[in-house]
Amino acid sequence: MRLGKLALAVIVSALLSACATSYVDGAIESKAYATAFYSVSMYHNPAPADQVKKAAQRIKEAAGPNFQNEFLAQTLSPLNQIGESETYFLNRRLYLDRAKETGLLSEAGAEKVELALGRQIASNIVLQKDVSDRVKRAYPKLPELVAEAKNVEFQHALDGKLKAFADYVGVYRSVKAESPEKAQMLLPQLRIQASKLLAEDKGSSALNTVMGAYSDTKDAELRALVVKHFQSPSLSREQLTAYGKDEFSKTIVAEMQRRETKLRVTSESDDPFVDELATELPKSNEWISIDDEAKRTLTLSRLRFSEREGAPAVQTQTVSQLDFATLLFIPRNASVLFDYTTTKYDLNWSMNVRDSQSRKAKVIAGKRSAEKVECSNLRYRNVFGGEGTLDTVPPVVQEFCSRNNTVRFDAVREGAVREIAKEAADFVRSGDGG
């Protein structure tokens, strides 16, 4: 048993090695030397030393006498695309060390690569991005590069050249730790970028980021942007409630009161939907509540209403294609038949809704229909006209009878009520301006 496991491990290892070798050969053949070497320099799955040496030798032979310059150029090229993950930088560290050991990079070339990687990491630190201790230990020259990166990213922030608002906040925090006065110089740009972000993203994600910036700066203009964003219709009751703490509690309470709509639903006719709508309206819009004492009234007036369930129609269907299993249980040349009952349901409505506050009215109209199929009396009929029962249901019969057999006419009606309620709720809220 133990020998079997050992043999399997050897086979798997050989297969993986063959795959890796094949990939390296393909990359070298297409002159992607850095890519080929990177594939044997993965931090979490490093290739054996002999495989690394073989890859390096093949790269040298393929690239020719100028291999170091070619390899350096290919190595530096993708570093313009800044990486952020721990794995990215640890892989690059192993790649760099192995390239130097095998002679693919000269001392000067390796120093250029390490400097480029170190600057990326230093920028991430200044931007307050997550950089693990393991990455920091892998790049010992980081402390001096961080000081340089602070000046570079500070200037980028002043010039409005950073990619994301979170980057501006990161630079602000990094600079503030050493010089609160210098950090104040970033406030105008923070305000500009926060305003842009909130204009593009009306949801809670952008708001959370700007609130974080306000928490750091206590800037009155950032606070005003936050308060204004509380009025965004895309923020739900639950989200607003979560923001209603500390200094924003009164603001949130006022905003929620502004959004709240209390309604009394009445009918000028014997409207069959009036009670159901009163229940469904708050479900259609979380800011609407039904109150019999409310001053604002939504009045329904039926214009047309038709609800009709047709008479069941029974038909007999002969199964033309029978599966082999069914044929085994019926006489030779017998046919299989079943009855199916079709019932149709139609619902049409047209009503006028009038809002006492806006003094506007709207006609809400629509229709829904459904068809229910129920099967019965599955049987076979032999060539002499005799009939018998079947113990199993042929697949084609199962498919036909399962299509609409679960249709509930009550559910169709409930769907119509939801549709009317949604349209009525939107009409009411449009009168609120939200």
UniProtKB/TrEMBL annotation:
Endpoints of the signal sequence: 1-20
Keywords: Signal
Keyword Signal: yes
Name this polypeptide is given: Lipoprotein
Provenance organism: Comamonas piscis
Upper lineage: Bacteria, Pseudomonadati, Pseudomonadota, Betaproteobacteria, Burkholderiales
